[in-house]
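Throughout our pipeline, every protein is held as a single compact record rather than as scattered files. This encoding replaces a full spatial description with a residue-level series of whole-number codes. The remainder of this section carries one protein's record, kept here as part of the documentation.
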Amino acid sequence: MNRIQKRIILLIVLMLTVLCGCEKKEEKEVAIKDYSIEHETEFGGVYIKIGIDEFNDLGFKYGDSVNVVFDNGYSLDDIPYYNGYYVDAGSPLLIAYPGYEYIKVAVNYGDDLWDEFNLKLGNNTEGLWTALSLEEHNKVTVTLNEEGKYRDIQEACDIHYYDDREKYDSDEMFANFRSMDFGSFKENIIYRSASPCDDQHNRAPYVDKLISEAGVKTVLDLADNYDKIERYIGAEGFDSPYFLSLYEDGHVLPISLSMNYLSDDFGMKIVQGFNMMAELEGPYLIHCTEGKDRTGFVCMLIEALAKASYEEIKDDYMLTYYNYYRINETEDRDKYDTILHKNLDAMIRFIIGDEIIDIHEADLSIYAEKYLLKMGMSEEQLQAFKERLMDQ
């Protein structure tokens, strides 16, 4: 064998070594370790203090399965990472919701993980719980569990909307504003919309104009408390003068609902709000931030109370998803059905309880009344509330 042949053989051996991975590099772990956390109080949950884009740049993708471990010992294994709340009520997820500053761990329509996992407590060297500073004493680690495990759900549910008025056909669509004019409601007595005071989505001035034109006299604010409303009013650029006049006259009723419609506290606050509404004149507005989730549940409840059919309640609920996302029953059937099943149907099933019925044919007013009475509303208060809104 001559020198040239030997060199050729040596070259081939070296190439095969590289191709066969005889000197394999270890795969890089996709993870964040010991990151600070922060309580997200409006909807309930735990912010992990890393930006969404920065987190995704590490290799995490929507639809992945992840493990989340807090350094106080609590953990969530094999939960989905989505850019929307695409899990059933009561189920956990890691979420990068558009507009959030950080990624968040939460339970969809469930208890606040901050409280559930005792994250407001630190752990001293003796293993005893002590009220120490969260930022200094609680951290979280997130690791990729399985790439793409929940990708099919992510792709089926992936939706987002715009905060630019010019992308919508009308002020009403942009503000998600409408009257509930079916069932036994009096004409133009009750409206729903996005927030007329919280302008994080650029909609508040449009809602303010529309409720002024509709002559709304009382606002049930599901999202805020008085302190938050005062901050909105004091913010630079606040431009909701009609809302301000109602607020100054004592006709804005903030009840600061969480997202957990499964809890008794949620129901008792609704009763509180309905009782306050009954003491003031209409027309009425019901809103949260987007007029979608908390407003969706409360309006479903009132519509059922007004003897609206399932079809009427469904059409009103899903109109929000058309206004924001252009999702409709004919062109986006898979997304439409998924949203309906996971959200509205689940809410209706919740107020019905364990009874097995066909929700499409049932008299839902029976179950709406039972729910409100169970949550503490008296028969007299229920009747007074109905007299304000409905033709008896």
Confidence is low (pLDDT under 50) at residues 121-136. The chain has two domains: 31-157, 165-389. The CA atoms of residues 68 and 142 lie 5 Å apart.
